[in-house]
Specification:
Blueprint: H1 2-12, H2 18-30, H3 34-47, H4 52-64, H5 68-81, H6 86-98, H7 102-115, H8 120-132, H9 136-149, H10 154-167, E1 170-181, E2 188-199, E3 202-213, E4 216-230, E5 233-242, E6 250-260, E7 264-275, E8 278-291, E9 294-303, E10 310-320, E11 327-335, E12 349-363, E13 367-380, E14 385-398
Antiparallel strand pairs: 1-2, 1-14, 2-3, 3-4, 4-5, 5-6, 6-7, 7-8, 8-9, 9-10, 10-11, 11-12, 12-13, 13-14
Helix pairs in contact: 1-3, 2-3, 2-4, 3-4, 4-5, 4-6, 5-6, 6-7, 6-8, 7-8, 8-9, 9-10
């Protein structure tokens, strides 16, 4: 009704002064009625072309609707009339950042800082432009300048923390796992060292696995890649090699992940594990959902008839803690298909039920520890069941 009344007033010429129209436009804009707000601004500017606040609001409305050329036109006129109008400059910088034009955003920010070197918001926006241009050192300096003026500037502080994390391109991790069985096997031991590097296209991970099982020792080498394909879409690629029969002699994996509306994510892929004279292809995927600080995920595994058709699935509930990198997880699963890390000696398993707990704790800014415990009850081909207890502990360093 308010929107219809405002349009009726415009049609009938019952508009009031330009200031009245501007105030009405602000109310419509904050209520989300942007089309009506634009018409009120345009009417105010017909009556008073030099009403800079109405033109500024009109420019912001165009920017919020993605009409960047129209926004530049209106905001440029405001700055031409009042070069020291900080609100108009900040709005125009936002337009350039949102439209992927960081060089022009940087020029506008530096031009404004020449008039007021201590403006914390302009320093913050300068930092955002520099980051978009790949100058992380310059961006960090601009954030420091913003925080010197206003130490409680939360957006700048959070952005500064993100910059520090981006400069830490490497992540090294070492883990130890022990599997204990109530029958059949002596304890299994596994030590894994991995080194990952963040690249412009995604991330790359190298991994070495060392295992001691059945009185023998073996080493496996792996490479993972997580390339970004487009916004909301990325891939997982894996290749591995081992000269021992404890591990698959060759392994390959691929998977595509896609972000979906309402904080869902889905994926589909496969893993191919080749032993001497025998290959196993496992089809897998996932459906995940973020809900507040929780992440829910279901991952199935389907193995065709090469070793007998089989199916299994794992369900994960993860609770992220305050720092965003620490978490606690509950994992449960059941089925007959082996997961992607199995060895030849696990082919004698028919079915299993498992439950486990995982956790990660960030220590300071650079260190983290991971730990997990799992229990699995395995049905065996020759009859009976076997209980398996898995313990894992690891430490991680970012640099």
């Amino acid at each position: 009704m308010l929107a219809l009344l405002a349009l009726s007033q415009i049609a009938e010429g019952q508009t009031g002064s330009p200031d009245d129209l501007y105030q009405q436009a602000r109310q419509r804009a904050f209520a989300g009625e942007r089309r009506e707000a634009k018409e009120l601004c345009e009417k105010a500017l017909e009556m008073s072309p030099n009403h800079v606040d109405a033109r500024l609001l009109l420019g912001r409305l165009h920017a919020w609707d993605g009409e960047y050329d129209a926004a530049r036109r209106e905001l440029g006129q405001v700055l031409k009339a009042k070069p020291d109008y900080v609100d108009a400059r900040e709005a125009l910088i936002d337009v350039e950042l949102w439209s992927d034009n960081p060089r022009e955003a940087l020029r506008l920010a530096e031009e404004g800082l020449a008039l007021d070197a201590n403006n914390q918001t302009l320093n913050y926006k300068k930092a955002r432009a520099l980051r978009a241009l790949g100058d992380l050192k310059g961006a960090a300096g601009a954030v420091d300048n913003a925080l010197k003026t206003e130490p409680k500037f939360s957006e700048a502080r959070i952005f500064g923390q993100q910059l520090k994390e981006e400069k830490e391109k490497y992540r090294a991790k070492i883990e130890y796992s022990a599997d204990l069985f109530d029958q059949t096997f002596d304890p299994w031991h596994l030590v894994t060292f991995s080194l990952s590097r963040r690249m412009s296209w995604g991330s790359l991970v190298g991994r070495v696995n060392y295992a001691a099982r059945f009185g023998r020792e073996a080493t496996q080498f792996e490479v993972d890649a997580y390339p970004r394909i487009r916004k909301g879409t990325y891939a997982y690629l894996n290749a591995g090699y081992s000269s021992s029969t404890i591990f698959p002699q060759k392994r390959f994996g691929s998977e595509i992940y896609q972000s979906l509306p309402r904080s869902f994510e889905a994926s589909f892929g496969l893993r191919h594990l080749r032993f001497s004279g025998e290959g196993v292809t496992i089809y897998t995927g996932s459906v995940g959902k973020y809900y507040g600080n929780y992440w829910f995920s279901f991952r199935p595994y389907l193995t065709p008839s090469s070793i007998g058709r089989s199916f299994s699935g794992n369900f994960t509930i993860r609770r992220y803690l305050d720092d965003g990198e620490s978490y606690l997880s509950l994992v449960a699963g059941a089925g007959s298909a082996p997961d992607e890390r199995f060895s030849t000696f696990e082919l004698i398993r028919l079915n299993s039920q498992k439950i486990g707990f995982e956790g990660r704790k960030q220590i300071g800014r650079d260190w983290g520890i991971v730990a997990s415990f799992g229990f699995e009850n395995q049905e065996l081909k020759f009859g009976g069941t076997r209980k398996r207890y898995t313990f894992n502990f690891g430490i991680e360093k970012k640099f």
